[in-house]
Amino acid sequence: MAYQKSRSSKKEHAFKRIARDVKAGEIPPVVLLCGKEQYLAAWGAELIENRFVNPAAKALDLVRFADDTVTVTGIIEACETLSMFSERRVIVVSDFAPLEGARLKGFSDDDEAHLAEYIKDIPESAVLIFTCVIPDRRRKLYKACSEIGAVYEFDTLSESDLIKFIIKRIKLAGKTCQANVIEEFIENSGYYNKETDYTLYNLENDLKKIIAYAADDEIIMQDVLSVISGSLETYIFALIDSISTGKKGEAYKLLYNILSGGESIYRVLSMIVSQYELILEVKELKEAGFGKDEIVKTLGVHEFRVKKAIGFANKYSSAALRSILISAYDTDKNIKSGLITQDLALEMLIASI
Q1: Cβ–Cβ under 8 Å, residues 279 and 324
Q2: Chain centroid to CA 269
Q3: Which residues contact 189 (CB under 8 A, 6 or more apart)?
Q4: Which H or E element spans position 92?
Q5: Torsion (CA) 189, 194, 197, 201 in degrees, nearest 10
Q6: Which of 3, 14, 214, 286 has a beta carbon 3.0–4.6 Å from 152's, enabling a disulfide?
Q7: Does 14-153 match 160-352 in CATH topology?
């Protein structure tokens, strides 16, 4: 079957597009799997392998190249060799440095040009899969892959898709979990923190730890908090959540945990101020008639953070949020002027909110 370029919306995640294309058998002879989520790139490669390669003939019809073994000649010979017992022969070239514009020992620019030219006439009996993280779109090989084959770029999952990813793995482990606990796990994981390299590989590993830690069939909040250390930002959100629901004892416990981890009191206070400023901004925009998507665009912060801030904003009036911020600003002044000790200052701030 001739491969047809997908006409799907650009917003559709690559994992959905490749799943549909593989099911329909519409995979071209050249495929590039790239993007931050290499977990999904590996999954995509496996999806193609399972679709076209006979399990009993993997030793013959599935060829893998690593950096220390890949050559243009080797790739071409693998593609030109007919499959023995499979629908198509699959050749996987993983973490291919030249696609990222990096040098690979024994692989010159001429080699890349030769390979880019070759794949224009690659036989349809083969599926040549390249993987890399961030491709250099100026490279001849990338342009050839894009023009002749298919490029699937696996970016960060949306919140709804990430939740489905987590639920599926929890069910496979024979466990259950409430929606608010899953949300807490996502927050503490730091998956949507742009300043980290946290990916699905990390998230799945943390999820396995939580599943193993959970003593009962249901994963509870304490299981998540006991296993996942989380980022300072997510702990601050948890602290604010405890304050807003009247659980001051839990808030103090979170504060002590944060400080015992070596965080500076000034940084903790700064983060508290920053989060309440965000909540107030969201509150004011919401009262002005802005929807969630408009708020995300206006403030330039991640959708997940805005959604969380909206939840907090609904618990306070604008006047109450301004009062909290004034107390926080005063706390900062009192600490710096020596009017009050650092530890006591934060405890008094929490008590006053």
Answers
A1: no
A2: 28
A3: 198, 202, 203, 206, 228, 230, 234
A4: strand 89-93
A5: 50
A6: 14
A7: no
Give the mean pLDDT of 175-189. 89
Token representation of residue 266: 């000034």
pLDDT at 227: 81
Q: Which residues contact 41 (CB under 8 A, 6 or more apart)?
A: 33, 34, 35, 131, 152, 154
Q: Which residues contact 71 (CB under 8 A, 6 or more apart)?
A: 106, 107, 111
Per the CB < 8 A criterion, the answer to whether 237 and 184 are in contact is no
| Residue 265 amino acid letter | I
Q: Give me the CATH code for the 160-352 domain, please.
A: 1.20.272.10
Task: Report which DSSP code applies to 107.
Answer: B
For 14-153, CATH number? 3.40.50.300
Asked if residue 269 lies in contact with residue 278, where contact means CB atoms within 8 angstroms, the answer is no
293-340: pLDDT as tens digits = 899 889 988 777 788 889 889 989 999 999 999 999 999 898 888 888
Report the alpha-carbon distance of residue 128 to residue 91 in Å, rounded: 5
Identify which has the larger pLDDT, 128 or 293. 128
pLDDT at res. 248: 85
Q: What is the mean pLDDT of residues 143-172?
A: 96
CB 304 within 8 A of CB 186: yes
Residue type (1 letter), 196: T
| CA distance linking residue 49 with residue 58, whole number of Å | 9
How far is residue 151's CA from residue 154's CA, in Å, rounded to a whole number? Answer: 10
Residues 156, 42: Cα–Cα separation, whole Å = 15
**For the chain, domain boundaries:** 14-153, 160-352
Residue 347 is encoded by which pair of tokens? Answer: 């405890």
Residue that wins the pLDDT comparison between 10 and 153: 153
